[in-house]
Amino acid sequence: MPERIDPLALSHAQIATLIAAAPAPAEATRIASYLAGDHWQGGAGWMGPRPPASAPEFGATMELIKTAFVSKNVLTEVVARHVAATVGREPAWAYTPLAPARASDDLTRAETGLVAEAEALVTPWWDVRDAAQLVQDALSATLAYGSAVLRLYLPPGRVADDGTVPPGLASAQLDRLFVEVCARGTAAVIRDRHSETDIGLYQVTDDKVLTSEVHYTAEGADGRRLTFVRVLRGDLVLDYPPYDLGGALLLHALRRPALITATLLQLQGLLNMGLTMLGRNVVQGGFLERIITNGLLPEVGGIGAGITTSIMGEPLRDATGAITGYTSPGVVYRDPVPIDTFVGTKDAAYRAMLEEAHQLHALISGDATASGESRKQAMADFLADVGLSVPAVVKAVRWLIGTPLTLAALLAGQGGRYATLRPEAQCRVDPGPLSGSDRAALLAEYAAGVRSQETTMALLGVDDVGAELARLAAEAQDAAPVAPPPGNVTGRPDATTEEPTP
User: Fold this and answer.
1) Please, what is the Cα angle at 239 between 233 and 244, to 5 degrees?
2) How far is 416 from 409, CA to CA, in rounded Å?
3) DSSP annotation string for 237-289
4) pLDDT-derived band of residue 395, with 50, 70 and 90 as boundaries?
5) What is the predicted pLDDT for the residue at 490?
6) By percentage, how much of the chain surpasses pLDDT 70?
7) Region of residue 444 (phi > 0: left; psi between -120 and 50: alpha; otherwise: beta)
8) pLDDT at residue 283 above 70?
9) Which residues contact 24 (CB under 8 A, 6 or more apart)?
10) pLDDT over threshold 60, residue 489
11) Predicted confidence (pLDDT) per residue in 337-361, tens digit
12) Which of 173, 216, 406, 472 would bridge with 7, disulfide CB 3.0–4.6 Å?
């Protein structure tokens, strides 16, 4: 039988344990360092040879390697490319009535007015809070670690000293609400398998005081599912009055398979090693190494452009110290090895990283030798991976435009005012510039009736499809021929009827 998690019995230590136990890559700490630009990572990021850690020269050798270490942050590149394709163009969102589906022109005046009211409230809040950027940041974290948590909260400076929320209209209450992407390891949304309900957990040290939050839902007396929040601040426990948020929590988790895998980390290390060795080879090529055998070093200043240098052999002495002869000196030049090995390693590692991240299309898009079919397959692989992110983003946007609006109305004394509205969201996927053949293929599919006009326009890069469709409809109406008035061609009414003879 599944173990029950009692949200009212959780302590600071248990909350920390549950957050730490939330699914995350084993290399999460390394991934964070890589994404922040630290590819050296105290020497752990170097894949090349090194002396044993117990060797006396270990520290000095690693310091020399660190000085010459070169990296290229492909991990950040693949995450940014995926985010740009999924939410680089701001997601479209709107509200629709919960009534059975019907044409928009069948909406009642009250429904239309409520939709307009909700959109007028949330649109400026969405812009001021830069919610589109929040979604991008949350997706970036999800691609890195497999999950990210958004948190809706009221800052202490926006409430009264006693913790109560001052009265005000819904717009004023909405202005008090903020959303953040929780730092890794500070929040999680877990599933209680006993009741099959979600529990949100959050924990930070604020002003040197450990603060934990537990968010959960439970059925009220009337059968509605209410949202409860318990705050543990040090030894103080505070339970807030329940919120009727339609079963939503003030924490929301985005989830999808992590894009950055252990394989991708290994390939990143290989690419960095190739770049480092390439740089090392450049140094050797610019500063040729000379080894003098059986000879005395020339005097200072004796080597350089336009200077002829003679090297004398080492003197040979007898037991009395008298010179009996000289060694035969020689000079050996150590030329740099060809760069082909390092360039090939770097290029192969970069290609393998793009393949692992389902982004090979970014490499072959400018390859004149690649076939059109290979480009299509690479793009299809990329779009399939983007498709794994779309549901997570859609759910997050729906939560972003639904829960704050519901909470603001509740704080304004208008609980349930927008309960008949359903938040809707849509990702406007943008895989990047399309080739002429790709655009022609999209138009052909639309003409054949296998793809809608709206989807075709979105894939062709139209920013606001709804507005563009409205403009097209207006232009079509303006261009429509004007029907002649009733009657004959002269326009005189009842011209076909003979007038009576006086």
Assistant:
1) 135
2) 7
3) EEEPPPB-STT--SEEEEE---SS-HHHHHHHHHHHHHHHHHHHHHHHHHS-E
4) very high
5) 47
6) 84
7) alpha
8) no
9) 145, 146, 147, 184
10) no
11) 676 778 889 999 999 999 999 999 9
12) 216
Give residue 199's Cα distance to chain centre.
24
Q: With CA atoms as reference, report the closest residue to 178 among 206, 202, 154.
A: 154
What amino acid is encoded at 473 in this protein?
A: A
- Mean pLDDT within 109-120: 93
Q: What is residue 17's predicted lDDT score, i.e. its pLDDT?
A: 96
Alpha-carbon distance 201 to 442, whole Å? 45
Parallel/antiparallel/unpaired status of strands 187-192 and 421-426: unpaired
Query: Domain coordinates of the chain in residue numbers?
Result: 11-37+73-193+254-259+390-426, 433-477
Strand partners, 219: 225
Mean of the per-residue pLDDT values for the chain?
A: 86
Which pTM value belongs to this model?
A: 0.81
Per-residue pLDDT at 497: 46
Type of residue numbered 431: P
> What confidence score (pLDDT) does residue 24 get?
85
Paired strand residues for 488: none
Q: What is the DSSP string of 435-453?
A: PHHHHHHHHHHHHTTSS-H
The three-point CA angle 90-92-93 to 5° equals 130
Decide: residue 273, CB within 10 A, 0-12 exposed, 13-18 middle, 19+ buried. Answer: buried
Quickly count: other Cβ atoms within 10 Å of residue 13's Cβ. Answer: 10
Which amino acid is it at 425?
A
203 and 213 Cβ atoms separated by less than 8 Å: yes
* Token code pair at residue 67: 């000085």
- What is the rounded average pLDDT of the residues 255-284? 90
d(CA 154, CA 177): 5
Amino acid at 448: A
Whole-angstrom distance, CA of residue 273 vs CA of residue 47? 6
Judged on CB neighbours under 10 Å (0-12, 13-18, 19+), 248 is buried
pLDDT on residue 51: 92
Q: What is the SS3 string spanning 110-175?
A: HHHHHHHHHHHHHHHHHHHCCHHHHHHHHHHHHHHHCEEEEEEECCHHHCCCCCCCCCCCHHHHHH
- φ/ψ (deg, to 5) at 295: -145, 160
Burial code of 30-65, b = ≥16 C-beta within 10 A, e = fewer? Answer: bbebbbeeebbeeeebbeeeeeeeeeeeeeeebeeb
